[in-house]
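Supplementary Methods. Inverse-folding protocol.

Structures were first reduced to a C-alpha cell string of length 185. This string, shown here, constituted the complete conditioning input.
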C-alpha cells in the first residue's frame, strides 16, 4: 500500500523552509514565472526564506493549498502546484502548476496533475477541475489535452504579459471524464 501523493515520477509534499533557495531560483526565470502566472518583483533571500517558512506551516483552508513537486529518482524539487477557486457547493476547483525550466518535458507535470485530480475527485468529492492556460503556451495546452481536459472557452486579450495582451484558454475536466482515462491501477 502506498501513498496517494506518490506517482510514477513525482511525489507531492508540503513546502519546507529549506526549499526557499530552489523556489528563488525558479523565480529568477521570468519566462517560467510568466507561463505560470506573471512576472513578480525580485525577492530578497530573507523574503524568500520567510515565504517558505510561512508556506511550511500554512494550514489549508477550503481545500486551497500549495504543494511542492519532487522528482522521485533524485528527491529534487522540480516545481509546485496549487489549488484555488474551490467551490464545494458547485463541486469545482481551479489549479495552477509550474515546473522549473530544467525539468520540462520529463512527465513531471502530468504525473503531478493526475495525483492532484485523484485526490480532489476521489477524496474531496469535487466534480470538476478547471485550469486557465495562456493561449501562447502550447506545451501546457498540449499537456491538458493529453490528460483529457476540454477547451471550454477563450477569453480574448484577457491578460497583459510581456508587453502585450494574450488570450486565456479555459480548460476543464469532470471527475467522470478523468476516471475513464486515469483509472488507478
Amino acid at each position: 500500500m502506498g501513498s496517494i501523493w506518490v506517482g510514477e515520477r513525482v511525489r507531492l509534499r508540503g513546502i519546507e523552509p529549506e526549499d526557499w533557495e530552489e523556489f528563488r531560483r525558479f523565480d529568477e526565470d521570468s519566462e517560467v514565472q510568466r507561463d505560470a502566472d506573471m512576472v513578480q518583483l525580485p525577492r530578497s533571500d530573507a523574503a524568500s526564506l520567510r515565504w517558505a517558512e510561512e508556506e511550511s506551516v500554512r494550514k489549508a483552508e477550503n481545500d486551497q493549498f500549495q504543494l511542492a513537486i519532487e522528482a522521485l529518482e533524485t528527491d529534487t524539487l522540480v516545481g509546485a502546484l496549487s489549488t484555488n477557486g474551490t467551490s464545494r457547493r458547485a463541486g469545482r476547483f481551479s489549479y495552477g502548476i509550474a515546473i522549473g525550466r530544467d525539468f520540462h518535458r520529463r512527465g513531471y507535470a502530468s504525473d503531478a496533475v493526475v495525483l492532484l485530480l485523484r485526490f480532489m475527485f476521489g477524496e474531496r468529492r469535487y466534480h470538476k477541475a478547471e485550469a486557465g492556460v495562456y493561449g501562447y503556451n502550447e506545451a501546457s495546452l498540449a499537456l491538458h489535452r493529453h490528460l483529457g481536459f476540454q477547451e471550454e472557452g477563450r477569453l480574448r486579450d484577457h491578460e497583459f504579459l510581456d508587453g502585450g495582451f494574450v488570450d486565456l484558454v479555459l480548460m476543464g475536466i469532470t471527475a467522470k471524464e478523468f476516471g475513464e482515462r486515469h483509472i488507478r491501477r
